[in-house]
Each structure stands twice: as C-alpha cells, then as structure tokens.
Design goal:
The complex is a heterodimer of chains A (165) and B (581). Chain A has two domains: 5-67; 79-164, Glutaredoxin (3-Layer(aba) Sandwich), CATH 3.40.30.10. Chain A is 45% helix and 11% strand. Chain A has helices at residues 15-21, 28-39, 44-54, 58-67, 87-91, 94-104, 147-164; strands spanning 79-84, 118-123, 135-137, 140-142. In chain A, strands 2-1-3-4 form a four-stranded mixed sheet, with helices on one face. Chain B folds into five domains: 2-97, 3-Layer(aba) Sandwich (Glutaredoxin), CATH 3.40.30; 115-325, Rossmann fold (3-Layer(aba) Sandwich), CATH 3.40.50.11540; 335-418, Ubiquitin-like (UB roll) (Roll), CATH 3.10.20; 423-512, Up-down Bundle (de novo design (two linked rop proteins)); 524-580, Alpha-Beta Plaits (2-Layer Sandwich), CATH 3.30.70.20. Chain B is 40% helix and 14% strand. Chain B has 24 helices and 17 strands. In chain B, strand 11 (375-380) and strand 12 (386-389) form a beta hairpin. The longest helix of chain B is centred in the C-terminal third of the chain and has 18 residues, at 443-460. Chain B is globular, with a radius of gyration of 27 Å. The termini of chain B are far apart. The chains are: A alpha+beta (165), B alpha/beta (581). Chains A and B meet through helix 2, helix 4, helix 5 and strand 4 of A and helix 1, strand 9, strand 13 and helix 17 of B.
Amino acid sequence: MNCDCKNKNDFSLLEPCLQKYDLVPGSLITILQNAQEIYGYLPVDVILHISQRTGIKVTKIMGVATFYSQFRLEPVGKYLIMLCQGTACHVNGSLQIEKVINEYLGIKDGETTADGLFTLKNVACLGCCSLSPVMMINDDTYGSLTPEKAVSIFKELQEKAGEEE
Amino acid sequence: MKIAVGQGSCGIAAGAQKAYDVLNSILDLSNNYLTVTGCIGMCYLEPIVDVYANDGLHRFVKVNSEIAEKIANAVNVNDLSSVKEYEISDDDKQFLDKQTRIALRHCGVINPEIIEDYISDDGYKALNKVLTTMSPENVIEEIKISGLAGRGGAGFPTWFKWNAARQSQGEEKYLICNADEGDPGAFMDRAVIEGDPHNLIEGMLIGAYAIGAREAIVYVRAEYPLAIRRLQNAIDQSKAKGYIGHNIMGTDFSCDFRIKAGAGAFVCGEETALIESLEGSRGMPRLKPPFPAQSGYWHKPSNINNVETFANVSWIILNGGNAFSSMGTENSKGTKVFALTGKIKRGGLVEIPMGKTLRDVIFDIGGGIKNDKNFKAVQMGGPSGGCIPAELLDTVIDYKALSATGAIMGSGGMVVMDDSTCMVEMARFFLDFTAKESCGKCVHCRLGTKRMLEILTRITEGNGKEEDIELLEELCLAIKDGALCGLGQTAPNPVLTTLKYFKNEYIEHIVEKKCAAHECTNLLRYEINAELCKGCTLCAKKCPVSAISGTVKNPHIIDMEKCIKCGNCVSVCRFNAVEVK
C-alpha cells in the first residue's frame, strides 16, 4: 500500500504478474492493480513498461488509469485516509470530519502532508453506514467519528510513525 | 459452549477483533469453541458476542475488552448469570424478531470461513438437487414460479433474463454477479459476501447450470477487501470439495469460478459498463440492444444478476418457488434486504417480506428517529432514487408503489433524515456524486449533471434565482430523455423528488435566503442573545476573524459582515447565548 520509492524502477517486481496476465485478454485493470500494490502508485515509467510488455497502447492504459478512482498517478503518504462521503456519513457529519482534517493535518482532498505521512482521499461509500461517519486508514476502518476522535487517531499514528523512525 | 463473535467489516470497525482477542486469551478452549461469524445485522449494537449455552442463545452487545473479559470468565465457570446485564434488551431483540430472513438466513449464524458450517446448514443441497433431479428448464421454471426479481434496483424478472441467456445461440456463455455495490448508503451485498459467501457461490452455480455457462465471475468493488478475501477463501474450499470445476458432484456439469476486483467507478454497476470493465477497459456503457443475454462479455451471451438475487436462489430451490411467492404483494414477491442508516435509532440490516410499509421498517423495526426528533424523509435508491416524505410513510414496499412516489426500490439503501437535513443540500450532494461519477459518454449526462450541480450549489450558497426551479425541471427532463444508461436517466431523481415534496425549501432558499435545517452555512445568521450573554468574552477570543466585539460583563455583538459562519462561538459559549437563525 505504501510508496516504496526504492522500487520505483525495479520492473522485475512486476514480472511475475506480467507473465501471468500478459496473454490473458482483458487483464489490464488487474495488472495496474498489481503494479499499484508494488509501487504504491503508477509511475510513468511503469506505465510505459507495461505498454511495452503487453502491447497495449499507452493512451489506452492512461485512459483506464484515469477513469477509475482507485488508481493514482502520484505517490501517497504512509497513511492513506479514505474519508467516506456517502449519504449516511454525509447526513451524520462527514463534512465536519473533513474540516478537522483540513485544519489539523493541513491537507485537502488529494493532498499529502509535507512530512509524507498522510494523504486525504474522499471516497463515495465504504459500506459501513451504521457507524457513520467513517474513515479507512490503509486497511483499518474507524467508525462513529467525531472531530476529537479523528484528531486522536491522527496523533496516535503520528506517534507510531515517530517511534518507527 | 460455542461462542461466536460477529466479524463483518462494521463489527471489526466497532472493535470486534479486540473482543475476540480477549475471549481467545481467557476462555478455556478445551471445553469451549470460539468462532467468528458474519454481520449479524444489528450494527448499532456492535461488537456482538453470541454464547450458545445449554439453555439457548445469550447475545451480548456493545462488548468492549472489559465486558469480553467478564463474559469469558463467566463462560469458564459455566454460569452466565453474572453477565446478564450485558445481554441484549428485550426491546432490541425486536429488531431481529420482526424480520424474515432468506437472503441473510446464514448471516451471523455460521462461520463464513468454514465450508462445513455452511454444509451442515443445508448448504450445497440445492445445487445437488438441481444437478441430479432438474433440467435447466425446470430450474428456470421454478424461479419463474417464485417471482424473484432483480434485487440490484431495476426489479427485472430473474427467470426472464436466465431464459433469454439460455435461449441465446452459442456454446460459450458467462454468468456474472454484480457485486459493485456503489450506492452510497447500501451495504447488504457486502454483508452477504462477508457473512455467507457459499450461498452466493451456490446461487451462481445454479444460475450457471440454468443458462448453460461454464464460467462464473463475481465483480466485487475494491473497497470491500474483507469480502474479497472471504469469497476467495470460499471459492478455494468449494473447489477442494468438487463443487467448482470439472464434473461437479460427479455430473456432466462443469463450471469455473473467479473474482474480478473493481477499481472504483460507480457507473460499473450498470451491466454493460461492468462488462466493459471486466474486459479491462474504461467502464463506459454500451448501447442496448443487443442485451448482454445476446452479446455480453467478449460479445458472448452473458447473464448478470445482483448478489442478493443469487442469495435467494438456493432457498427457492429447496423450499419451492411457491413458498417464496407466497410472501409479498401481487407484483413484488419474496423478501427484500434494506440497509437502514442515517438518523435512525437502530441502524443495520433489515430483511422483510415485500408489502410491509416504510413505517414498519423505520419505526417498528428501526425504533424511530435518533434523539426522538421529527422524521422528515427517507432516501431510497441512492443517487438514482429519491426522498420520500413523512406523509407517504404508509407506502408499501413494492416495486410499483415505490416508483409511484418518484423514488425507487433500488438496491436497498434507506437513509433516514430528520429536521436537521436540508433537502436542497441533499439534492446538491447527490448531483455532486453523479456529476463526478458520470462516465462522460453522453452530453446530456456529462454536462447536464454539471449544470444542475452549479444551480443547486448557488441555491445553497444563497445566490439562487427565481427562474432556477424552472431551469432545474427542464434540465431534469432533458437528461432523463437524453442519457444512454441508468446512471444518467435516473440522476435527476433526487432533484425531482425534493422539488415534488419539498419545493417550499427551494423557495425559502431562493427568495428568503433561509435554510430552516441550518445546514447551508452561507444562509445562516449568528446572533448573540443579549439577555443570556454574560459578557465572558470567550467567543470574542475564539472568533478567528475578530467579528465579535463587546466589553467584559456586557453583552457582545457579532458583525455579520465579517462573520465567516464557522460556528466556533456557538460551540464555546457556556450560556447558549449564541443563536443560529
């Protein structure tokens, strides 16, 4: 999930996936998902490499990569905050959570903090509507958020990241 | 004793894993069996721990680590009386007792990660019955008798689609499950996959047999990692048992099975867009006809149904189509699952026979509105649906009756709203969603939704013009007529229904520049009540733009010219002196 920039130009990491799928028609989305899993996002070099290996035109790959919200063309922070903006979350105050993220972390939708720790992404619905408002950070879901609770979660992650360094 | 912890995504988010870990470390596992189960459906009481004792089921709710410890100790000494206070109340029991569960019948009961659990609860019996005693035509006939209709939203008869795919020429056919549950506010498909994945697999295999497909594909949205993991695990187990693959159960029927993870695009819930996405392209809808039954995935005959539709199939085969059609109304048979959320006391998954009223669901089962506020509207069908007002609460749940209100049955999202929800803002919210999710193929949808969003935005910001309502209505009709797929054709519904039932709110916003729900910040006015203000100066200190003036111990005043309506003064005032108008 997290960007590991050391891997950026190491195409060999993607080779097993390309060998498995390059002859299977209709596998472009699966290949891009694998690539993003490895590199954290879709670097231009990787897209060019996929094009060369599979024979799929770069324009088609870019078309697909920009169509689906899952794909990123820029690296993301260590923690990707997916803030649910679904109906139930909206009705129960997701905008206040967004506001507190804007204020406390200083980032807006799509932006990454200067320390590279957090990226904010507004998403449609995470399907945890009864715990709304909800956010997902990497693979963990946090529900029944209040502005205070959100800040304490960020603080905890900031401390955890500090300890890891 | 058997102890089961409800571990759907929402249970885990509420802390079910912690409860499980505590139980696992304290329970005497030589005498007891600790297991997990899927979403029990009472999301508002998560985490939930079920203890199956000799005298029956004891259900513990809102189990934090401390309560889990107490439960574990009580189980160890075989005496649950000490933890009785943490059991579900009789009042809350009503939430499940008033439901009729078919699609969700195993959810929260079996362990979704163990195939034997499913098999011991009549699992794969329907598949066996179909493969050994029924022809594909018999299966389609039984589904026809049941009256099962597509649960994804449109309500198209399932047998008709199956039959069309069966009748199509060609050896190579595909059966596809649409699990791209994109409607914000809907999560029943996630619950079925996470809680009972084998039921989906069995329903799909029966469908594949009926239409003559040799490959079945589930298109799951990528936002559901746990669902994907459990489904993959179930597929692997099912393969190992010989229920998937060559010569299933020793018969001539062979069928492969795989998952395709979506990549985040709401329009892929539309069946032809989903097919484009399966083929690795941008998910842009195709012109119909030809329908997928004639020319679908790789232009081969394909049949696409929703998760909940398949989840009903094995039950219908085992109990007969007549048992299913005995429930419901004249044109809507069986049960429907709803995801009840928003300003509701008891939120969660509700499965009830068609024909009940909205009031039954929201007040009888859901317990009414949070904090006993006034019910204002219920939003059904997500961005393709509409808002149904209080005066229509006695509308029965039936495809036709709901469509008559301007909303739709939809996939089953029911978002309840109270007086604090502004209906104009709600319409703006949905148009913001559809404008972003429009694939861009049709001009009416691509530009029309954008124009509507601009108009709605200016109304909520206090810059609406009197002719805006007429313009909105005109745009709604043009987009409905001009769009190719369901996304565009239904995108105006949230606007049309709010205009139909809450036109006064639009007029209030435009003419009086007022938002009665206090949601549209630009239209708010903050005033300090001089009688209540003690002159503590706290609000003046906390105001980020120095809009509040006054001296100590004297009432303060807000300068509305400077005020940015951040609301800080309201939250810091200890005397409730700041009034929002």
